Amino acid sequence: MIAGPARAPAGLGDTPGEVAYRRLRADVITGHLAPGRKLGLEELRLAYGAGVSTLREALTRLASEELVVAEGQRGFRVAPVSAEDFAEIADLRLLLERHAIRESFAAGDLDWEGRVVGAHHKLATLERRLLAGQAADPVVWKRYDLEFHQALIEACGSAVLLETYGAAYDRYLRYQMVAVVFRGAVAAEQHAALLDCALKRDADRACRVLEAHVASCVEHVAQTGALLPFAPRRTAEPRRAMAR
Fold it and tell me: Which of 59, 60, 140, 185 is 20 to 30 Å apart from 18, CA to CA?
């Protein structure tokens, strides 16, 4: 059975299709629907309380975002994960975020600085709890992480850049949620360094810190083998008859 879906916020006036899409999308990104999982429409209908045609439309939208794979007549499956794909998504995130940081640092005002400080405060508080060995909801933790990185770039002045970055970050976030990545004090220190760079408007140093931040996350996932449980199973090849 499918686990209870993560609740994505629904706006007033959202259609049933939009609600189903947001809930399914949230469950894929947070790992509630595991990579490679078959998405049977009847099972989804019972779990999400939506019609088959509505679910098929939502899954088709997710397939266009490469979060779900359409398998023709066989239906849909959650997109698989791999170390190679994670590295490519990380590179895309870096490409977008570095450019956005430079634009945002140049244009941000005092109100922007306040939002960056506030976002970092929430993230740093939760990181301190994690470092102290306290339990924390990974969804809340990663939401604070996202909010801080979004605050850093929100003054870039380009809605298209922010939207494209958001889509890339969601794919990156799915890997973090699947691998349950927390790298300890080094990640918290890098976030603090990014805050310092923002307040000093030091975009060059911020980009270097960001590169190390993302690269170490990708390396950590590879070293821990966190993605191996989701690797597709290989079918055994039939043995060849020995030549006489």
Answer: 140
For residue 86, pLDDT beyond 90: yes
- SS3 state at 175: helix
The DSSP secondary structure of 38-99, one letter per residue, reads EE-HHHHHHHH---HHHHHHHHHHHHHTTSEEE-GGG-EEEPP--HHHHHHHHHHHHHHHHH
Query: What DSSP state is assigned to residue 210?
Result: H
The pair of structure tokens assigned to 119 is 């976002």
Token match 């698989």: residue? 80
DSSP string, 128-168: HHHHTT----HHHHHHHHHHHHHHHHGGGS-HHHHHHHHHH
Q: Is the pLDDT of residue 228 over 60?
A: yes
Q: Can you tell me the distance from the alpha carbon of 37 to that of 59, in angstroms, rounded to the nearest whole number? A: 13
Round to whole Å and give the CA distance between 162 and 100: 8
Give 38's strand partners.
77
pTM of the model: 0.85
DSSP 181: -
What pLDDT was estimated at residue 4? Answer: 41
To 5 degrees, how large is the angle CA 194–CA 199–CA 202? 65
